[in-house]
Amino acid sequence: MRILVVALALAALGIFGPVGSSGCSSPGNTQFLPIGSHCGADGDCGTSPYTCTPTAPGGYCTKTCAKDGDCPTDAVCAMGACKRKCLSTDSATDGCRGPEGYVCRDEGAVSKVCDTP
Question: Is this model's pTM higher than 0.70 or not?
Fold first, then answer.
């Protein structure tokens, strides 16, 4: 009985991690949401190098890149405000979250990219 009480006390203090936690975490470079999805924090989009740009309308999941091959199949590597990043591809502003202010722009790639104007 004492062991059970001690174990419960340690669990409540977080010694064994959060209650209900399995102690597992996702490996690096794991994508949770598609590029261009709504987000509020980096962890919404995936593990590093996936990030959220919370200053974009509704947030925007992205990933830094050097070439198209660094991006998931639904995105291309394009020049962002100050660095290259994966942007979602689409051929119509409607699919690019147009009502939120996003537009499709030609980046010189095979596909157009969805970005803020």
Answer: yes
